[in-house]
cellulose 1,4-beta-cellobiosidase (non-reducing end)
Amino acid sequence: MQPLPFCDSDEDCFGDKWCCGENCGGNVACPSGTDCCVAPRTLTACPAHYHRCDANATHPSPFCDADADCAGDSHCCGELCAGNEACSLGYGCCVVALSDAPPPPPVHPSPPPPPPVAARTGGFVPFGARGGGMVFERYGRTAAQAEESSLTLRGNRRGYLALAPAELWGDIAYDRLRLLGKTLRVTIDVSRVGCGCNAALYLVSMPAADDEGSGYCDIQSAPARRCLEVDLFEGNVKAAGVALHTQAGEAADGTCNQWGCAVRLGAADGGCKYGRGAPNVDSARPFELEGQFDLEGRIEVWMVQDGVRRRVWSAEDSGNPAPAAVPDEARQSVEQALADGVVLVASLWAAKGDGMAWLDGGCNEAYPHCVREDAAVKFSNLAAQTVALHPSEPVPQGRNEDRLFVLVSIAAMLAFLGWFRSEDRKDADGMLTGVRRPGSPSPRKNIGKSKRALGAYDKVTTPKETAISMDVD
């Protein structure tokens, strides 16, 4: 008869549970020198209700029950049920039901976890024309303050436009801007934002705040939290950027991905269009930023300084890469986001070393690296307005109509000049005298008007507007 795979309690094999050479798993034999540990015996210790166990078997059953762990401390039944736990010593079966052998209670039970604590905001600063303001994250040791119609951020801050103050994020309601057919204007002063720092004003389609926090997201967030981002302005005193991000991806593949349908000013143009003392936009002085959103999700961004308006980003030629157009899929995403309402975000942050070189090309003697605690950006006169045309003027339907209007104007101007020259010839017997007849219009005056209509960088008069400050519902 084959020996049983157990050692009798009074003939333990030097602490091993298995014994008797090859017949019992290759462990050392009993001290007596016999070939087996124990004489054949009846296994009365294994109750009949144990699963798949034979109480009188000399070999255990080659099955272990899947729904009942063993209370023992080795593999169940040796190699016959390899990988499962064994019964307590002395049992000749594979498993012991959990109900028959409950695990012992822990010596030091862990206390129950405390109830979740509602996340708190990092403060509220009044800003904007609708009685709301900016609610801030708690990170950072720096400050934000409001003065009249302006908001100043210092150091390292990020805030979101909200309807009213609250101490808990779960009580915050964001002021969602519905900007289709609107123009968003704000005056920006980055004269104290050095190279390596980033003052940003942008729109994101972030969810509502809750007890866990602000719910912030942008295009660079983790995949589960990624959302549409419209960077109306990111910059410092050396460089600036405008970008649209609607989807994931990092390549110049024509999509407005994480690289973005972007335009860089300052570092990319040698400081001609933007920078300290630049002829176009002098970053050492405040300038006005305009974001224009048509009814179909197309965006244009303008910078205005000293009465001169310059378009710096357009859906027509600011794609990825430029000068390609923004793809229609991205335009549709923007249209939907602006219809649903987006959250305005203002932030100021710094990067170490060349971490901001993607924006400003790196720092140098002329533009030394900023000290985060000393950096400050000022946003003022925030307003969203609906442009209202004069009742006698036709409502524009798109860029084709605008181009047609310009062409017709040019044709009319040329026709007028031809008539004027013919009149002058009559006064000089076929010679162009350049002397006007009494009451005739000045050709120089009309030429000046035509240049103004066609020149993107000439001084222009602000169109008639119905100012509805922050009228974005």
User: Anything to note?
Assistant: The first helix runs from residue 328 to 340. The chain has four helices and 17 strands. The longest strand covers residues 182-192.
